[in-house]
């Protein structure tokens, strides 16, 4: 752990929350907390299953992980 506000200490989570904020929350109306709760859960599913990530060779995280399992021969 580093200093408070040092984003590079947890870059992966900071990147996710940045994407959540800029790709979703600021573009979709959030009338209630309940709506936001379900909307964030939907975004997490989208982020992991459908959103293409350039660091993963333009694959979603789930597809990238599955491709690594297939390459290594693990089940």
Structure description:
The chain has helices at residues 11-25, 33-49, 61-72. Helices cover 59% and strands 0% of the residues. It has three helices and no strands. The chain is an all-alpha fold and 75 residues long. The protein has one domain. The longest helix is centred in the middle third of the chain and has 17 residues, at 33-49.
Number of helices: 3
Integer count of domains:
1
Per the principal axes of the C-alpha atoms, what is the gross shape? globular
- Return the string of H and E elements: HHH
Major beta sheet, specifics?
A: none
Helix amount: 55-70%
Low-confidence stretches: none
Instruction: Tell me the span between the first and last alpha carbons.
Output: 34 Å
Mean pLDDT: 82
Cα-based radius of gyration, to the nearest Å: 15 Å
- By secondary-structure content and strand pairing, the structural class works out as mainly alpha
Q: What is the percentage of strand-forming residues?
A: under 5%
Please count the beta strands (DSSP E, at least 2 residues each): 0
């Amino acid at each position: 752990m580093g200093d408070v506000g040092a984003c590079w200490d947890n870059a992966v989570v900071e990147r996710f929350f940045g994407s959540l904020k800029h790709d979703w929350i600021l573009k979709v109306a959030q009338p209630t907390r309940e709506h936001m709760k379900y909307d964030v859960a939907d975004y997490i599913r989208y982020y992991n299953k459908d959103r293409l990530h350039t660091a993963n060779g333009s694959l979603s995280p789930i597809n990238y992980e599955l491709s690594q399992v297939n390459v290594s021969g693990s089940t």
